[in-house]
Every structure is written in C-alpha cells, then in structure tokens.
Amino acid sequence: MNDEADVIRNEILALVARYAGLAHGTKNFDERISAVPVSGKVYGAPEMVSLVDSALEFWLTTGRFNDAFEARLAQVLETRYVLSVNSGSSANLLAVSALTSHMLGADALQPGDEVITCATGFPTTVNPILQNGLVPVFVDVSLPTYNIAVDEIERAVGPRTRAIVLAHTLGNPFDLSAIMSIAQKYHLRVVEDCCDALGARYDGRAVGGFGDISTLSFYPAHHITTGEGGAVFTRSSQFKRILESLRDWGRDCWCAPGNDNTCKKRFYWQLGGLPEGYDHKYIYSHLGYNLKMTDMQAAVGVRQLDRLDDFIQVRRANFARLQAGMKAWEEFFILPEATADSEPSWFGFPLTVRPGAPFTRRALVAYLNDARIATRYLFGGNLIHQPYMQGRNFRVSGETKNADLVMRSTFWIGVYPGLTAVHLDYVLACFAQFIHENT
Question: Which of 18, 164, 282, 373 sits at 20 to 30 Å (Cα–Cα) from 413?
C-alpha cells in the first residue's frame, strides 16, 4: 500500500469513529416510550472501525482478523484449539458430526446410537443428533437451575448410549462434576453447548473445558457478537483435525486458506479410489461443508473480546438486582438459582409462574409486552412436543413433568449489558403493579 492510500485509510477510520459516536451513541431511558429489550448488541467506535478496516482490505473470507480472534478466544476459553464458524448452530452440527468421524475408528458413533440430552432447550442443540442418524434420549429438566436433572441421567443410559450433548442453560453451568463422572463410568463422549454461557465457570474452570468438544454462538443476542457467527473448540488435536475438515468442505488437506503444500507431498497421496498423486487440496475425507466465518465478522469479534469482562460483570450485576427485587414475590414464582460450585455468566433471568398462582404466564407476558418489556419463553419448551419432532426417532427417559411445567409457565427477561439500573427498576415496578392488580 502506498503512502497516499495509508493517509486516506486513516482519514476514513477517523471519520468512522466520529460517525459511530454520533449515529450509534447510547440513548437515555424514558419509561414513557423506551423499550426494555431481552437482549441486544453492545458496541461502539472500536467495533465499527475494526469492521471498516477489514472491509478496506477486501479480503472477505477468513484471514488475519480471524487468526487473531481465534487465538484470543482460545486464551479466554482456556483451551488449545478454537475454530470460528458462521453460527452457533453450525458449531453444534460440527461438534456432533465429529463424533461420527471414521478417524475415531471403533469409537465413532454409528447411526442408531443414542445421545442423552435435555428435554428443554434450543432445537439446534438437538438437531445435529437427528441429522447424523443418532437417537436423542430426552431427560427431564431440573428446577430452579433449568439444567438437566442429573439424578435421572443414569437410568437413561442404555446399551447403545454413546454420548451426552447438553447446553449450559441461560449461562448457568450444568452439574459438570456429576455429568463427567457418568460419562467416565459409561465411556460416553460429552459435547458442551456454551452458546449462552461464554465466561461462565464451574469449579474455577471455564465451561467448555470439560467435554470432548464445545460450542459458542456470536449471534447479536449473545455475550459477544460478530453478527452471525460461532465457534467450536477442543483440547484434542485429533478432534481439531476432524472439525477443521468438516468445516472446510470435508477436505483431507489441512492447508490454511491461500497456502499450498503444507504437507510437502501435495501430489503424492493415494486415498479412496482416486489415482495416486491426486491433488491433496481436492481430496475429501469427510462429508463436509463450508462453514467458515468471514474476516469482517472476526474483526468485530476481536474488539468485542475487549469488552467481555465488563459484559460479564454487568450481566451478573443485573441478574443480582432482579433476583433481589423478585424475592418479594417468591410465593408466585420459582426464582432461578446457580448450580452448586458454579459462577454463571447469565444470559437471561428465568421465571416460572408457580402452579396455583393467581395469574398465568400468558397474562403476565402480555402485560409486560404492553409496557414495552420484552420477554422470551425458555426456547422450545419441552422439545418432544414441537411440531417438527413428530414422527422423529427419539426416546424419552422417565417422565418430563418439569419440562412440561417449563413449557406452560416459564419465561425470561433480559440482563444484557445494554440494560441499566434504570431499566431494571422500571421492570420491577411493572411486576409490582401487575401483581398488585392481580392478587
């Protein structure tokens, strides 16, 4: 790049920073007209400048910003390998698909093998199990942690059970000590879906570092955002190789984009039924996809990581403020609790209207909606009742009474860093008014 281009580039980036402050600055909350979102992206000049900086290079696909993003994320997650992808759903697809890889030999999961999971949650935690011809085994949820009922897991284990795939619900870690003990006892693989739990810790360690493979999402609702985007991570060099192949079209070659002949024998391989010397860059050992993140997305992610510690602190503070305020109405709500030995990185504040309460979830949510306070149900509720699950091959272990209660009576409100004490005090005041009017 020449000197004049450098000067222009610097001018552009300076203008972007000014524009960000003018066009995207924080607005004051006015309870007469302002909304209280359940989630949202928090960003500013650093992210916008980094995004434009990447755009000016016009590399477009994965590149230097992504290299930096993966390296920094590995440090945050206290893991060895991080591979960015285009969504958290893609990360889950790669994680479960990797368990079926031929590279695992006799340890590879086969069609018809069973995978234990929680009856409540987001569909794309479960969908990759079905997509790989595996059989989800649904276990009930436990209240008030909203994670799988660990006491029910062992009775769900059958002769073809091979893995456990679970999400840390709303940033609250599931009981990793109990689950990893069960996994070790029955020789089960474990996938941790950390899409709602970046920054959460269990027994002093970052979540995602206990299972074989773990996943993240960077959709705007999540702890940090790249717009669309996600990541899959592992400590295993074998799983890293498998995941990379699956993410990068299924190719056998491990060269980074733009590089050739890393193996030093590009035209000397003989695999499958291909002729000897077939170009290794075009040999495919897995049924794969192209699920990479773009460098422009990664450029945003690098700057979002600068804010992560503050984001987590605000989420915890917002959760604590709501928890303290809601204590007065505990007779009407099941309030959330952190899993023992954990430090959640809260994604939301879940509430379950108790059976016998003088009002329904539907009435309360409608009231909050009229007050411009956003709510969400606990994702898909009891997933076995979702329309797309009808006729699918799955098994239910025991009863799912709590999952049915979640489906009928649970919702959550926001704790994301864009919410201040003023927002939350307004939320609590609206709850107080509704309860006064309905009790």
Answer: 164
